[in-house]
Design goal:
By secondary structure, the chain is mostly helical. It has 11 helices and 2 strands.
């Protein structure tokens, strides 16, 4: 494949990844890394480096729209971002010590774990929210306008300490795999902290930029960021993310969750097969 064809294919695939990633809070990395490695034959370390840059672009593009629409919970994001940045730095250093095959298997396992967690999520949204003094003290609770039902939805956040620990893990996965950590952040906020799926998705998008930026420097110094690959990927993901930011408010939580589970399961199986 020639340079021009490679650039066009990478841009088109990245735009699709950015659209789906924006809708699911994944940042597109969970989709574009498998595409670059499985379809275009890019080394997984280079693919992860390109994904890190794309995640920053996604967060910059989609997050602004989600904040404008009131979907992102800024207080939750600022609280959890401290944990994700710490984890991202650790994960980026560890990535340089692990073989590509092992990275593929870890990548796929993480995605399937996240999908299973979403499938096992609470079926009854009316279940009582456990009280949490830290969430109350930090005033993490919020509300948003749900465009799918044209109503203001109020929600309470719980288990803030659990969320902080989970985001350390999510940040580590972000730095290790270049996925923005959204594959773990969204289930942690949705299941553990009992936030609505659309709010979890939007908040994850808001957080991803800082998480990815924390590890990008490590990848750059190591030479794992190739401009020829990273540029079309980042631009494509950004375009897709901007479109996704317009679509998400009109979707209901069930549709978003279903897309999340299907996408992660398919990609996870493919990545494990590649590394085996």
């Amino acid at each position: 494949m020639g340079p021009l064809a490679f650039t066009l294919v990478a841009f088109g695939a990245s735009a699709g990844a950015g659209l789906l990633g924006s809708l699911l809070g994944l940042g597109g990395g969970a989709i574009i890394v498998p595409f670059l490695t499985l379809v275009l034959g890019v080394d997984i370390r280079i693919a992860i480096g390109a994904s890190i840059i794309a995640v920053i672009a996604t967060s910059s593009g989609a997050a602004a729209a989600y904040v404008r629409d009131g979907l992102s919970n800024i207080r939750v994001a600022m609280f959890l971002e401290v944990a994700t940045v710490i984890g991202a730095l650790a994960g980026a250093f560890v990535a340089g010590l692990i073989s590509g095959r092992i990275l593929s298997i870890i990548f796929g396992t993480v995605l399937i774990f996240s999908a299973v967690g979403m499938l096992r999520a609470r079926q009854n949204g009316d279940d009582p929210i456990p009280p949490d003094r830290l969430s109350d003290r930090l005033e993490l609770h919020g509300s948003f306008h749900d465009g799918s039902i044209d109503e203001i939805v109020h929600y309470r956040v719980t288990r803030a300490p659990f969320g902080f620990v989970a985001m350390c893990v999510a940040g580590s996965l972000s730095g290790l795999l270049g996925i923005g950590g959204g594959a773990f952040k969204v289930p942690a906020m949705d299941i553990g902290m009992r936030m609505p799926t659309k709010v979890s998705t939007a908040t994850s998008n808001f957080m991803m930029g800082a998480t990815a930026a924390a590890s990008a420097g490590v990848y750059f110094v190591r030479g794992d960021i190739v401009p020829f690959i990273a540029a079309p990927v980042a631009l494509g993901v950004l375009v897709g993310a901007l479109v996704g930011a317009r679509v998400l408010p009109r979707l209901n939580n069930t549709a978003v969750k279903a897309l999340f589970v299907v996408a992660l399961t398919v990609i996870g199986v493919q990545m494990i097969a590649t590394g085996s």
